[in-house]
Specification:
By secondary structure, this protein is an all-alpha fold. It has a domain at about 35-69. The chain has helices spanning about 1-20, 35-50, 55-65. Helix 2 (about 35-50) runs antiparallel to helix 3 (about 55-65). The longest helix is centred in the N-terminal third of the chain and has 19 residues, at about 1-20. It is rod-shaped, with a radius of gyration of 28 Å. It starts with a helix and ends with a helix.
Length: about 70
C-alpha cells in the first residue's frame, strides 16, 4: 500500500512539474518587413548625416546593401 501511494505521489508531482513547463500559452510572432535597396540607402544616408553612423560604418553598410541581390 505504501509503495502504491508513493508511486501515485511521484506521478502526481511529475505531472504538476510537466504542466508548469507546458508553454501552451506561449505566443510566437514573426514579422518580415521588406524595403527596397533605394530606401535602405536613403535610411543609411540619413543615419550618417545625423551622426548615428561614422563614415566607415556608412560605407560598410552601403556596400552590404548594394551587394544584396
Amino acid at each position: 500500500m505504501a509503495i502504491k501511494t508513493l508511486r501515485l505521489a511521484t506521478v502526481a508531482i511529475f505531472a504538476v512539474l510537466l504542466a508548469g513547463c507546458g508553454g501552451g500559452a506561449a505566443e510566437v510572432r514573426s514579422e518580415v518587413t521588406t524595403t527596397t535597396k533605394g530606401q535602405q540607402l536613403m535610411d543609411l544616408k540619413k543615419a550618417h548625416e545625423s551622426g548615428a553612423l561614422t563614415q566607415e560604418e556608412y560605407e560598410r553598410e552601403r556596400k552590404k546593401v548594394l551587394q544584396k541581390e
